[in-house]
Amino acid sequence: MSQTLTHTNTIDHDLQGFEKYMLELSNITKVYPTPKGDFVVLENLNLKIKEGEFVSIIGHSGCGKTTLLSMIAGLNPITSGEIILDGTPIKGPGPDRGVIFQSPSLLPWMSAMENVQLGVDKVFANATKKQREDICKYYLSKVGLDGAFDKKAKDLSQGMKQRVGIARALALKPQVLLLDEPFGMLDSLTRGELQDVLLEVLDKEKTTGIMITHDVDESIFLADRVIMMTSGPRAQIGDILDITYDRPRNRKAILEHETYYSNREHLINFLEH
Amino acid sequence: MKTKIIKAVKFMGLGYLEPLIRLITGEEVRKNSKDAFKRILFPLLSVVVFILLWHSFSNYLNNVESTLKIEKTLKNQGPEAAKKLEDCIASGDISCRPNSLPSPAMVATALGKLWDDHKIMATKKQDFIDKYETINEERAANGEIEIVYTGRPSFVDQIKTSLKTVFAGFLLSIIIAVPLGIVLGLSDTLRTSFNWLIQILKPVSPVVWLLLVSMIVKTVLTDVDVEKSFVISFISVGLCSMWATLVNTSVGVSSVDKDFMNVAKVLQLGTIKKIFKIILPSSFPMIFTGLRITLSVAWMVLIAIELLAQSPGLGSFVWEEFQNGSSDSNSKIIVAMFVIGIIGFMLDRIMMIFQKLLTFTD
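^ inputs. structure came back:
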């Protein structure tokens, strides 16, 4: 693990400009019609995410974070604006965006293996059966589920279920990984373990990703950029904090880094404001 | 070993045997004997109490009827005939036994008689088959019609026929209701369009279904070889009982967990894969509950339908005994009643085991 962590001040991403954008959100507005009139959740939200970048979004409950993520996933229609994934606007959901839900939502009647394989069979339809099985096994062991391949999902613990959920999303080799408070329902010990698992995968595979979280430390630990959203209605991006610790990251080194507490304070100040 | 047996016993829905098994192996004697008392002895006691009440009630009814009979004889035929009748009743002779609710003892005797009859008839039938075996082979070789046994069916034969009819009807209702329920569950438009029809047809009485089915079958089936009454009764049973499965399947399919549907959407599963991998497994518990209701309804209406359709089976057995009016007819009807009840209970238990085997529990 790298012990020489560096921290540079805020970089203007647009000026760096050479890398391509994996995901571009332009003028996203979401309106829910209610009997009392329209309820504007998000208004004119703009965000660009580079290839290989991992971004976390924090904000108060009900500010529209989950709405935003489900719109990117294609599960929730956009009122106006456009979401462009790798150059093409998205239309509906698809396996190019792997989603990890807050509740693992595994199919309880299937084994861990079958749950992962369901998507793998779809995405890698041209691969041989053996290759597809190997993909599933690779990701399941990566999230620490060696020896639990054939356990039925209903018999797994909450933490193990979420591991399968992560493996299921990763195995599809998605262009963008979308995580909706993935560790919110876990105890803090399991949460820490799974954060490490996720971090390791991110460091290795350089997956582009967006993660919604309530946890300030989690967002610093995992993300390259933390997007702070203002409280709704008409939520927008309030502030952006760049986290520039080198990858691969190490929890202990980050905690001891001199800028850790200033970053933390920055986020907490925003949230308490 | 013991835990395995207990698990198996519980799986079969016989959980009340658990304390007994634990008691036999000497585990926590105090607690388990208390449990065994509660779960085995008390239910048995309630059966005993029921039989005692039944016994005294039937005694009372029989006394009422005897008194009425004696009074009537006294009025119509004079004191001498009345005295004769009174003695006859007191002696317990079959010829003058009051014809009211039979006592438990009479029902038990009738059960024994039915069993003996069955054994006699079964030997007769076997003798017949043995006797005609070679003759029938010759006839078949010559292209002639084989001689079949046409003797009266025994009680056990009637049970078998009834079971055959109910399974044919149950199968028919599965074939119709499950696919239709899935289609209705998948489409909101179809569900709302068919809702009125379903709601109107659901409460229709089995008798009316039988009449409707016989109208159609009489026109369609002109072939003499087919047992028309069997066809009519199993179709009616199927039509009467399929509604629970239809409604449960469509509700189960339409209310699949939104998270599961999101998974299907994100993975862009095709329609067939979505139905077989996600929708059906997740609505299996609902479908099975529907099937259990369907089977018990099928068994319940079967008796009425057989009775009306003159189709062989327990229903016509009950009806024939009622028409027959011999001294032990009432007892035989009560035997049929308990047999019907016990078989219905067993069918439900079998369905429950299938349900446990095939559905997930979260």
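Confidence is low (pLDDT under 50) at residues 1-15 of chain A. Chain A has two domains: 1-95+176-273, 97-173.
thumbs up if we can close this ticket
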